[in-house]
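Reopening: Phosphatidylglycerol--prolipoprotein diacylglyceryl transferase still failing for me.
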Amino acid sequence: MLAYLNFPQWLKPEIIPGLPVRWYGLMYLVAFGIAYFLMMRQIKENNISFTEDETLNIFFWSIIGLLIGARVLATTVYDPSHYYLTRPWLIFWPFRNGQFTGLQGMSYHGGVIGAVLGSVIYCRVKKLQWFQFADVLSAGIPLGYTFGRLGNFINGELWGRVTAKPWGMIFPHAQKFPVSADWVQDIAAEIGMQLPQSGLVNLPRHPSQLYEALFEGIILWVFLWFVIRRRKKFHGSVFSFYLIGYGVVRFFIEYLREPDRDLGFVLQFGDAGPTPALFNSFLNFSTGQILCALMIIGGVILYTVRKKQTGNSFEPVEDNSKGDASAGSRSTKNAIRKKRKSIK
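Support: Ran it again with your exact input. Result attached.
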């Protein structure tokens, strides 16, 4: 009996074969839709001092910033060939060699930076409370993010490291290894895989996209939505825990996810082994782990600063009473905003 799985052959990146419409792009739209729905639900249920127009505009500029930041970081930090650095006009050009490819390559961390910048600038111009908005948005983001990682899985990309676990999966486009290598033969023997006499072989990998969908997505969302959000004492606390929570979860999942082949380990203090596709040491750190460490540090600093600024308490902007039908009107929300002007 084989102790591994094959990538489902019926899963294809294209929704309709031959057309440049991919599941990955659709998953992004689903993610945005879920984040927007959960954001509007919080605003309507709690009478938060944002009108629907203001909320939609902030969300729009957050998405614009996200797409720009995600693409720019992916084509700079994660592209050691410097192809786009020497051709910056192609960063947002969806064609390559005359073929429509879409914008392949998006960085999560770049997306966070871009979304923050886009929403901060808008809130500064309109004199709105950015930390309040950040809390509302970050409470729902992970559930939407789940679908982004499912899109990565359908694309058969961002696979994990080689594993002998029974749920290890062979991804068709993953790097192959020489059958003559001792470690390849050892893993093949452990999982019951028959090797050819010579050449290259594709070995099972951790389905790290699914790990991320579960832990960075569903579990983090449950934690933020049902625990942190209900115990919120000051604006900025939910966003702080989002940065910390995502950073911690992603940092450890990176040990199971193969580093970008051209980048390898940014910091290497342990044995690298025969290939980065194998886990060999907790002392080797990828680019993603460095960025996650910065997220954790940033989240801790933000929480500490905001707690000190607010004295760990504030007059709640959210009014949980049901109220009458006029509670959501423009005049009511303006009154709430004026009453809470001192909250930043």
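The chain has one domain: 5-49+129-339. If you still see a failure, please send the error message rather than a screenshot.
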